[in-house]
Specification:
Blueprint: E1 11-15, E2 22-27, H1 34-41, E3 47-52, H2 53-66, E4 76-78, H3 87-99, E5 107-112, H4 114-126, E6 132-137, H5 140-146, E7 151-156, E8 159-166, E9 171-175, H6 184-201, H7 203-218, H8 221-240, H9 255-264, H10 273-290, H11 296-308, H12 325-335, E10 342-348, E11 354-361, H13 362-374
Parallel strand pairs: 2-9, 3-4, 3-5, 5-6, 6-9
Antiparallel strand pairs: 1-2, 7-8, 10-11
Helix pairs in contact: 3-4, 5-6, 5-8, 6-7, 6-8, 6-10, 7-8, 9-10, 9-12, 10-11, 12-13
The protein binds nicotinamide-adenine-dinucleotide (NAD) and zinc ion.
Zinc ion is lined by residues 145, 193, 255, 273, 277.
Length: 377
Amino acid sequence: MTAPLRAGEPIIVNVALGARSYDIVIGRGVLASLGERIKALRPGARVAIVSDETVARHCLSATQAALGGIASAAPVIVASGESSKSFPVFEQVCEALIEARIERGDLVLALGGGVVGDLAGFAAAVVRRGLDYVQVPTTLLAQVDSSVGGKTAIDSRHGKNLVGAFHQPVLVVADTALLDTLPAREFRAGYAEVAKYGLIGDAAFFAWLESSWREIFAGGPAREHAIAVSCRAKAQTVGRDERETGERALLNLGHTFGHAFEAAAGFSDRLLHGEAIALGMVCAFDFSARCKLAPAAEAERVKRHLAAVGLPTHLSQVAGGLPDTDRLMDLISQDKKVKRGRLTFILARGIGGAFIAPDVEAAEVRSFLEEKLTERC
Ligand SMILES: NC(=O)c1ccc[n+]([C@@H]2O[C@H](COP(=O)([O-])OP(=O)(O)OC[C@H]3O[C@@H](n4cnc5c(N)ncnc54)[C@H](O)[C@@H]3O)[C@@H](O)[C@H]2O)c1
Ligand SMILES: [Zn+2]
């Protein structure tokens, strides 16, 4: 960690899921309270930290110090990056937890971004038929999205996140100071998910982001506020539809187009997830405008803001280029089932007005993408 942590007043967002409810504690310096919070929640529990090499370098010693006198097993450290969401690494993590004699009643602590959260959360879901776990998210994406809501998974050779479980954490401690060491590009990518919450259902939040994004990037109280609003939006959605039988699908705004771009770029550094989602949200709004569902000026506003923070908004900005429309349509239909030539998309009537459109003509999407691929910035 680069800056010393100061203990401030945390913001607490509750995820209301009956007996499985939990708090998300947000603030600069809240990591220091981790041990106290764990002791209050699970007195006498032992803790096993799972992290990745990069995160461990920046955050492990502060996390261990924050655990105070809590007995902890040797940390389980995996390689950084998506490749750790694999069967072999998953096996290593499970075996390490068993070897460390982490029992029911003990805790797994996921210290890292979405990769570590998904991997450690899934290991916690299955080792000894289910261990409780705590999320200490260290990327912006993880603080506003992946650490909340209980989706855990690893990747299969057939695609991302295909093997996993719904398993809610018992506590999320999101220390915004941990983001100070995050590379700027990763921070920007996570910001796409922050903007997403405004675009889905909170026009006032989006307007605030347009004027306050510099302060969020700089790390002041605006950052905490943005994370809290994002977590509240996700918590409310998950509270109403934990298993994505309806409304939770709105959180996929920009993700059908985005996943196709991400897959086309080979899930590589050519296009980070959040960058793909920025492009996907631009497409969702442009497509909505093209279908006369949303005013074109709203779609322009989305593009303007995402471009202002440095996110890609034109398909021509993808390093190495994208494949042709046929290939992109293949990828879209792999991601979403096509039923009689129709696809389900999250579209919008305007900023803050996203809705589930179950009946989008694949042919319309194809001609839209055709145009998009020839558009220049
Ligand atoms: N479970 C969910 O609901 C959900 C939602 C969205 C995304 N995801 C998953 O999340 C993953 C992406 O998450 P991510 O973007 O956090 O990626 P990540 O976990 O790979 O982190 C990105 C990079 O930043 C490094 N890093 C993390 N914290 C750091 C810090 N504080 N300082 C410096 N470097 C740091 C990591 O080592 C890694 O190299 C994907 O696998 C995606 O499928 C899950
Ligand atoms: Zn996403």
